[in-house]
Design goal:
alpha/beta, Rossmann fold, 3 domains, 6-stranded parallel β-sheet, 3-stranded antiparallel β-sheet, 22 helices, 18 strands, about 45% helix
Length: about 575
């Protein structure tokens, strides 16, 4: 797409890659650029630098925004440690990643607020999401839970043990990788859809800088590091979720550029060496103060070392989010055959080229599209043979194969059986369309009442039958809707009944019959509006497809409804 005159949002714009992308976009005259970072100081610094580099852009051209995009807006400026240390905020995090994605969950997220405030046309996401999620270290949190469980078993103070275990378990729940990642992608998709974003580009990661399971770089963990492999796992899962987003009709065009090397560099200099924002303090332990080995080795604590009052100063190369490296470290990692490196400017060039509809060959989503095995002509050709074989077997055994509730969702089984009941009572769509809803309801109720075998088949697969009064429910011991989520009793009210009937109850009420009449009328109108001599490939849903409207085919009807009414159409072959 043409970048000129468009609003661009660069998430993680303070970082090494984000900064290069901001500069590259400026070559194409965007309308406005929103630059985000986790910390306010970082966002302000990035914007001030851009204003200095591009003085003619205007004072309000570059807009800073800061905060954590993985939490609700209320918590976006808090450190994760502070959030997890507070009962109230910890519960908020757990609720936001574990509960269903409801409108309140969406609207209170920091990501949604950001998108709604600026409604960007183009979003480039430079945040290392996999690192942010995986380096919460679920293994260490799990070890803490296990230690707490063992301690609680030994502790005579039961109330104290229960409290400690509850706290450790809640922290574990707040650390679970996959729920966090799924919720993040859900929020990203919904937020961009509502903001009418046109294109989304993710700067991804392989997790290992392109190296394999033999990667030698760890942080004192085993080799290969499980934490590092968690990062790769999350990165891979993220890519597959973006692959799905790229196949969603109302989502923005979705791309991912995934560097498989170290990214360098931001600057080279001499000065104080800082780690996590703090200077590394120099300590000294002269030989006469050596710790005598024996008994147990204490892992933490000052021991006999004393602070010198100075900090570590040296020559360094700043690789942005990956940290500060010494010359020796950078030379080792960049040696041919090791991680090597790619420059942020090369990444930025690929991103902008992809945004402008170019083909760099580096878009992972496009690569997956081209590498996956899609539906085939052979399978399509053989479909009719499969249908005919199943129909012959139905006739031979005197049965109709409607739904088993194996595929899901329960709504599919509900719709299949409702369409089947209409077929049994009225044969074709025209008859249903010209029959009033009350008569439809009465006829289907009579069929359900008289045909015990049919009734048993429906409720035995977990699909209840809601009678016309809206108060009587035919059900078996298993109900697929509402799903069991730890509560054995739920409130019965009109809103809940309507919700459950929609999701997975065969609904014999008059208002549902009116909905079926409306559906069939729309299908009939679409077919009859086609010219009588229409034989082109313009539409698939012609008279032949619907067998001249002479019958109701539940599977075909439900496939049509899932494509159009449920907006579940497959976007790519």
């Amino acid at each position: 797409m043409d970048i000129k005159g468009k609003t661009v949002l660069v998430i993680g714009g303070w970082g090494l890659v984000g900064s290069a992308i901001c500069r590259k976009f400026m070559e194409h005259e965007p309308k406005r650029m929103i630059v985000t970072s986790l910390a306010k100081t970082e966002a302000m610094e990035a914007v001030e630098q851009l204003r200095h580099d591009y003085p003619r852009a205007g004072k309000n051209f570059f807009v800073p925004w800061w905060g954590n995009i993985f939490v609700r807006h209320q918590l976006k400026d808090m450190a994760r440690e502070d959030i997890l240390a507070t009962d109230k905020y910890r519960s908020m995090v757990i609720d936001d990643i574990i509960d269903e994605l409801t409108p309140p969950v969406l609207h209170r997220s920091s990501l949604y607020r950001l998108m709604q405030q600026y409604k960007p046309d183009i979003v480039v996401d430079c945040v290392n999401s996999a690192t942010g999620i995986a380096y919460q270290d679920i293994f260490q949190v799990s070890r803490t839970v296990l230690q707490t469980i063992r301690s609680a078993k030994k502790n005579r103070n039961k109330s104290e043990g229960v409290h400690s275990l509850a706290l450790a378990t809640e922290k574990l729940l707040a650390t679970l990788y996959i729920p966090q990642l799924i919720r993040h992608v859900q929020l990203m998709y919904r937020s961009m859809s509502e903001a009418k974003t046109k294109i989304y580009v993710k700067i991804g990661t392989s997790g290992t800088g392109g190296m394999g399971l033999n990667i030698p770089y760890t942080h004192s963990e085993e080799r290969p590091s499980r934490v590092l492999l968690s990062k790769s796992s999350v990165a891979g899962a993220h890519t597959l979720l973006l692959f799905l987003m790229g196949r969603t009709p109302d989502a923005p065009i979705t791309k991912e550029v995934k560097p498989t090397a170290a990214i360098a560099w931001k600057r080279i200099g001499f000065g104080e060496i800082r780690k996590r924002g703090k200077a590394i303090e120099l300590v000294d332990c002269p030989p006469e103060s050596a710790v005598k080995l024996g008994g147990k080795l204490r892992l933490q604590g000052n021991g006999t070392a004393r602070k010198t009052g100075s900090t570590l100063k040296s020559v360094f190369i700043d690789t942005g989010e990956n940290g500060i490296f010494s010359r020796g470290e950078f030379e080792a990692i960049s040696t041919p055959g090791q991680m090597e490196f790619v420059t942020p400017e090369e990444i930025a060039e690929s991103v902008v080229f992809e945004v402008r509809a170019g083909n760099t060959g580096h878009d992972i989503i496009n690569a997956l599209d081209n590498a996956t095995l899609s539906p085939t002509y052979r399978a399509g050709y053989m479909f009719n043979s499969a249908m005919k074989t199943m129909q012959k077997l139905e006739e031979r055994h005197g049965t109709d194969s409607v739904a088993f509730e194996m595929l899901g969702p329960p709504r599919l089984s509900k719709l299949l059986y409702e369409a089947y009941l209409l077929k049994r009572c009225f044969i074709n769509m025209r008859t249903v369309a010209r029959t009033d809803a009350a008569s439809l309801s009465k006829s289907l109720t009579t069929l359900i009442t008289d045909d015990a075998e049919l009734r048993s088949q429906i409720i035995s697969i977990g699909i209840p039958i809601l009678m016309p009064d809206g108060k009587s429910l035919l059900r078996g011991p298993l109900m697929k809707i509402p799903p069991y989520r730890g509560e054995n009793e739920l409130p019965l009210n009109a809103k809940n009944i309507d919700h459950w009937a929609h999701d997975g109850w065969v609904d014999l009420r008059v208002k549902n019959m009116e909905l079926w009449r409306k559906r069939f009328k729309e299908i009939i109108a679409e077919v009859e509006n086609l010219p009588a001599d229409e034989t082109s490939s313009r539409t698939m849903h012609n008279r032949d497809y619907w067998n001249n409207l002479s019958e109701i085919d539940p599977g075909k009807i439900c496939g049509f409804l899932f494509t159009f009414e449920e907006k579940g159409k497959r976007m790519k072959a």
